[in-house]
Amino acid sequence: MGFYLQAASVRGPGHIVQNLSNQDAVLTRRWRTGWLAVVSDGMGSRPHSDIGSRSVCKAVLMAVKALPFDVPDRELIHCIYKNWLALLGSIAANDAVATSLIAWGKNTGETRLLQLGDGAVLYQANDGRGLLSGRSENTFGNETTGLGVSRKYSDWVCRTIWLTKPKQGLALMTDGISDDLEQMDTFVPEVIMKMRHMGRRYGKQWITNELESWPTPSHSDDKTIALIYRM
Q1: For residue 192, what pLDDT band results from cuts at 50, 70 and 90?
Q2: Exposed e or buried b per residue across 59-79, where buried means at least 16 C-beta atoms within 10 angstroms of its C-beta
Q3: What residue stretches are annotated with the PPM-type phosphatase domain (predicted)?
Q4: Do residues 73 and 114 touch, judged by C-beta distance below 8 A?
């Protein structure tokens, strides 16, 4: 009984019309003892938001490779931020602001969730269904926080859950998806049920098709999701 990881990211219709790059980024990795999933949404008002989001994914991977799984949240976040700044090089942090949604798990089922900024982490775990939302009360309108804006540990939402049974799992998603969901409680179990019998290639194709044919009228934002579930 192992874990299945799948991810997809598509440009929003607004960016396609304007010939802009996808400002979201996603990364999934598996290794012998665990796995990692990262989703990031670059702040569209910043000139290098696409670089910022891709750098978030790389920065988190660098951190989890260098640190033990039980590293304190504050130390992990500090390491991610240092890595992110290093990856940006000469690009100013304020020009590459990006959110962070992270799920770092062990094969035992212990899973660490961290979030900075908007989007959502939905999960179905041992203690039931839950939602992480990192939107700060100090932001207004469509402005969110993220790396490059926030320097406070208190802006992060951190939680540990356990995924030890089949059909348990989680979804990390940018706000292009989460803001349109009407049935958040049932989203993860429904997607898991649909994907359990799909192969890896067909599963990715199915998710991508769902995002490209998003049913919400006049939607324009990029859409990115990472799914992790226990077989």
Answers
A1: confident
A2: bbbbbbeeeeeebeeeebbeb
A3: 11-211
A4: yes
Residue-level pLDDT at 134: 60
Report the C-alpha gap between 94 and 173 in whole angstroms. 23
pTM over cut 0.70: yes
Bridge partner residues of 224 (DSSP): 9
CATH code of the region 3-230: 3.60.40.10
- 151 vs 93: CA distance, rounded Å: 11
Neighbouring CB atoms inside 10 A of 156's CB total 20
Task: Count Cβ neighbours within 10 Å for each residue of 15-42 and write b for 16 or more, e otherwise.
Answer: beeeeeebbbbbbbbbeeebbbbbbbbb
Task: Please tell me the predicted confidence (pLDDT) of residue 80.
Answer: 98
Q: How far is CA 8 from CA 83, 86, 139, 227, 230, in A?
A: 24, 26, 28, 9, 19
Residue 32 pLDDT > 70, yes or no?
yes
- Nearest Cα to Cα of residue 77 among 110, 104, 50: 104
Residue 164: predicted pLDDT: 96
